[in-house]
Design brief:
Two copies of one chain form a homodimer. Chain A is an alpha/beta fold. The first copy, chain A, is built from seven helices and seven strands; from the N terminus they run H-H-H-E-E-H-E-H-E-H-E-E-E-H. The longest helix of chain A has 24 residues. The structure holds a DNA duplex (30 and 30 nucleotides).
DNA sequence: GAAGAGGCTTAGAATAACTGATGCATGAGC
DNA sequence: GCTCATGCATCAGTTATTCTAAGCCTCTTC
């Protein structure tokens, strides 16, 4: 038994675009540019030999084929997401422990202050730690926010540009323990930091 | 609603490897090397934070997590494959019309002779044509086997090395109409040619 | 104990993906 | 009815991922 599977990343772009009814918003969710989403969807359409969206200047609409295709794709993703939740340890319900390296200017960034004082989120606990990715390995920490991406082999990395502070934009690196990256709390954390 | 989705191409490698119980056979199915499958599976395991296979020197075995994860992934792929079959035109049951460009030495290659004489497959019809990808655009042909990959913009390309002939190996390019690439008949054709 | 099969690892090469700029079309605001 | 803002498409260039090829190790078979 083999399957005829279209480009899977194109499916992800398609599903997100259909959910938002916008390439731009889908792109935000997927942390890429609208152009990338556009290209993925186009590649998918080419592979299928069918148009999935009707494009007008300021909006997109599903075609008949797109409307017909979408529910199954969504179902498939739900099945995968559910199985992943069940199989991968993730956080098993506990809060995400975020370390904020001493090199970062917490004071300049409201969201960091709120995370440390637990006012930002009920599922993320921030605290100041020394700048050492080894803290992720021995279980004390789930994610570490720092300024450099050195000695992070095997760890998941997100490049963050934090806004909202008085000093304008502050770039940072969020290093995450394998198995945590991608789960709900991690996605929320990234969204909070980028806000 | 957003999903926690692991690397989707890793899932595909995982499913194929579990089905064959072999990285090598999975690699053949996916038209890559075993190393590539190994890397995909490893990346997936890292993302999940769980081992899916137990590796021994001559075989792989599913771990408990892998055994638990597999059925859902398989279900998801079946859903996608079914929806794709239903939505994408594909061949709609007719035979795949393969053109063999005059530049190719049909005589030297048994499989080509058998395809032209309809003895190789009941769902593929081979015939000799002039070497022009435009034949794919105006509907007369589904795929074209030729020696060069020129002027194939927007078309799907497979690099084939045909064996079995008296003259040893013969490299060729299979150019396929969008919407046909990936469907069963196309996969079978590629497999036949590479055999 | 040599040969062979299967999986792992790695560097480097090939490929795919992403970005950022630009252009176009549409609708909103004045 | 201009002008502006928004959103999608496309392109070239860059970046990042993915793949291959080759070597290594272990176990099995003869």
């Amino acid at each position: 038994m083999t399957y005829r599977l279209p480009p899977l990343n194109g499916l992800r772009a398609f599903e997100a675009a259909a959910r938002h009814m916008s390439f731009k918003h889908a792109a935000d969710e997927l942390c890429v540019t609208a152009g990338a989403v556009s290209q993925h969807v186009k590649a998918l359409e080419t592979a299928l030999g069918a148009k999935l969206f009707r494009r007008s200047a300021r909006a997109i609409a599903l075609t008949t084929e797109g409307r017909q295709y979408l529910p199954s794709i969504r179902t498939a993703f739900e099945v995968i997401a559910k199985a992943t939740e069940a199989t991968a340890p993730g956080l098993r319900g506990r809060k995400l422990r975020l370390g904020i390296a001493r090199g970062l200017d917490e004071a300049a960034c409201p969201v960091l202050r709120r995370l440390v004082s637990r006012k930002e989120s009920t599922e993320i606990v921030g605290s100041r730690v020394k700048d050492d990715p080894a803290l992720l390995a021995d279980g004390g920490l789930d994610a570490l926010l720092r300024t450099s991406d050195e000695s992070c082999a095997g760890l998941h990395i997100d490049r963050i540009v934090m806004g909202g502070g008085d000093t304008g934009w502050m770039p940072a690196i969020l290093v995450t323990r394998p198995g945590i990256a991608g789960c709900r709390q991690h996605r929320n954390l990234v969204k909070l930091l980028r806000a």
